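Before relying on records like the one below, remember that each one covers exactly one chain. Contacts with other chains, cofactors or solvent are not represented anywhere in the record.
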Amino acid sequence: MDEAAKLALFEQTMVPHLNAAHNLARWLTRNQHDAEDVVQEAYLRAFRFFDGFQGGDGRAWLLAVVRNTCLTWMGRRTGGSNSPVEFNEQVHGAIGERENAEEALVRNAKIESLRNCVESLPVEYREIVVMREMEELSYREISEAAGVPIGTVMSRLSRGRARLLDCMEAKS
């Protein structure tokens, strides 16, 4: 396949999953700017190795590349701070028209608590929870992306959810 055809097929297959890639990278790196760098590097890697893509679910394949890029990036990162994810509730969430200020504050506090609990999960649980609950990948897709058996996905998801529940109950 020539380079132009490869680029066209790559754009058609992988670019639609840019938001999912960025979301996973943001949760794994815990930083907006680092996530952007990781996604850019992941897309370059994905394009370079696109000849190895056998078809099927492009999102799962791309998220596997993003995950591996994140893990490599986190492994070689030395020092620095893990600043929290930049998230603006006014931009990313809609407050209902009838919601009063007190309800909005309570809701935002719960969202912030949940975000903090997700960020506190170990990376092996956090990546599975993000792929399942936020990206809505199937167990099979998560298994492919994370490179672990489906049973491990189910176990990590169960343990991650239990830790989230414990964390949220502790914050109540």
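Residues 57 and 93 are 29 Å apart (CA to CA).
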